[in-house]
């Protein structure tokens, strides 16, 4: 394989995952949390593609495509929730949204 | 082993650029207080990832990444940010809480552990990459896989998309009806 | 013969079950009739069985009939069997005969009570239990009957359960009887271990080979049970309190039948007692001491039922005396005669109490002779029989026991004789004190205010009057079946089963009779002098007699207060910290753990996400470490 080894890609993927996780845990706005979630998913996708290339198996790419589709659906629902919360004049802060009622 | 050939050097340069762009934009996403900037950083992240995919011979996935993710998903994000306007702002709290430190520790630990495993070459499994054919990662190959070996995944993915679409419609229509009733 | 015996045993049980199951579906009086008719039917069956027994030759009169094998543990087998022999036959006749008369009397006495059905169910249960006791084919079934009789006694003493005194009396009776049950059980355990069986024949034949200590242990255990059930010294304190029960109950259970079960036990297991003559002498001694003590206490009692209760205690002392010296037939004869006249006295007292609307204190009665003449005559007959006046039944029965004491011809027998004769004096005295105070003299103020009246219900009057009349006839004539050594129907009848060890000569019989009758008449005379003719004022009663020789206080101090103190200590040390503490500790621990977990349910997404991330980090670490 030309360029860096699979290990390098995996390290990038690990960094992305950790960054995304940090974002989910630290930020208080649900919108930013969703964005961080996207980063995590992309990190996982990168790992999948890297392994797919390493083992010359196309299944990893299929998996990555499925992940992409699921991520898209999840974003749809998440954003719908955020918009609904905004309509209800709720404060967009995950710490304040601790009760499941309403 | 680094082979000093022209293509290899080129690949290395592209890789370094794309990788650092990826990481940098990732950190930027979680750092900005203006969500609009965070979204833009994410678009950059997605783009650099597409480049990385190309380097890994996953052409179709790279294309799909740009089209679906950067094209559709991020546009949705930007629409909502635009709709929310000022309410979307997410400033930092300012002081360091136990929660924040603990989160940093946890994420850091995760990162360190994974890096250690990878550095240890995962028991030698990460030794050498297999050879690939030219058809690897091409749309034809993806299509073939989707419709033969991974048919189930294909179908389930479509169902998930359908459910998400229906869910989105319901979430949207509920709030409008509630608003009409309230107003 | 045995078929009739089985019917006799099972009819009262059927009646009890029937009354219980029918509940309020039958009227109260119907329940009473069910009980009466079943007891009467049991008596008829007993008579049939008796007649068929008489048709057999004397050697052939014992029969053991087994229904099925009840217990089998290794070599130890017990069957559900009844023994029909002269001794059990005699008891069956007494129990069902007097029992059915008393149940018939209850038809009238308990009429109008709200819980009449419960009463008749319990009475039927009692009759069945007593029959089980006397008919039991082995010692284990005897013990079953023993326990059931104790249970029925408890239920019936505490019949008026809304009265705390009745409940306390029932508990006292049961606890003291339980002590006797325990000693009997120990005796049975020893017997099973040493002889491997509880069948009468096996035990009696193997008993000869046991060591004297073992035999003494067994005999003492049996004696303990007998003393408890028959309310003899030292376990006598429950009987006076048992008068809290309805009067027919006192008549049947605490005069005629249950308290005589101790005597029956000694006579039934007499081979064992004969092998331990010292224990047997102890039995006689206890009976004699009780006889004297009860007679003294009866002199100062003011409750009409308690006077008769102490007199029962005293007469059973005579029976223990008889059984203890080996005069088994005489003891059983006195048992039979006593059943007649004691039941008569109790039921007559019941008529008086019923007529005076529940008043039992003799100091508030007086002059009832003219108002209730028939009751007066019946009670007079009973009193004379009790005092041993010829030609009534008590005379024949009691004097033969005293003669048997003389026939021992040792110092012990003479002491027993002396005390027994003194007891005759006391008997005459206290009995006629009661009779003269209640029936003689002028009408008291209470009687003038609450005159006894004839009830509106003919059945009530007839049931009470007729049964008392029958008992009076029996009290008069019942003694004539045996007279000293002239004609001895009872002794002959019981010969195959319980041969008397002592035979009194004609002179001894005459001496005994003359002494007893003379002293009895003296007692009656003194009672007349003091209480009827009022020539002398009644002497002040001694405190020790009024306090019943302080036995209640003694037992209170010996058993009750230590038990209370000990349970307080245990409560403080064990119950509080250990039991409650552990349970409360479990509850507190659960609550605290729940609280801990509740703290986790903050609803904060970030916390949950952090938990996931931290868990993931730990998990990956584990995977790396384990590899």
Summary, kept brief:
Chain A has a single domain (6-87), classed as Helix Hairpins.
What are the key terms here?
heterotrimer, A: 102 residues, Helix Hairpins, 75% helix, 0% strand, C: 627 residues, two-stranded antiparallel sheet, 26 helices
Please describe what this structure looks like.
The complex is a heterotrimer of chains A (102), B (183) and C (627). Chain A contains three helices and no strands. With 102 residues, chain A is mostly helical. Chain A has a single domain, classed as Helix Hairpins (Orthogonal Bundle), CATH 1.10.287.3510. Chain A is elongated, with a radius of gyration of 17 Å. The N and C termini of chain A lie far apart (55 Å). The relative contact order of chain A is 0.13. Chain B has a domain of 92 residues: NADH-ubiquinone/plastoquinone oxidoreductase chain 6, subunit NuoJ (Four Helix Bundle (Hemerythrin (Met), subunit A), Up-down Bundle), CATH 1.20.120.1200. Helices cover 74% and strands 0% of the residues of chain B. The termini of chain B are far apart. With 627 residues, chain C is mainly alpha-helical. Among the domains of chain C are: 247 residues, no CATH class; 75 residues. Chain C has 26 helices and four strands. Chain C has a two-stranded antiparallel ribbon. A two-stranded antiparallel ribbon of chain C has the order 3-4. In chain C, a hairpin with a 2-residue loop joins strand 1 and strand 2. Chain C is globular and about 115 Å long. The model of chain C has no long low-confidence stretch (mean pLDDT 86). The chains are: A mainly alpha (102), B mainly alpha (183), C mainly alpha (627). Chains in contact: A-B, A-C, B-C.
Q: What's the total helix number of chain C?
A: 26
CATH class of the domain at 1-92 in chain B: Mainly Alpha
Order of helices and strands of chain C: HHEEHHHHHHHHHHHHHHHHHHHEEHHHHH
Structural class of chain C: mainly alpha
How many DSSP helices of chain B?
6
- The best one-word shape of chain C is globular
Strand portion of chain B:
under 5%
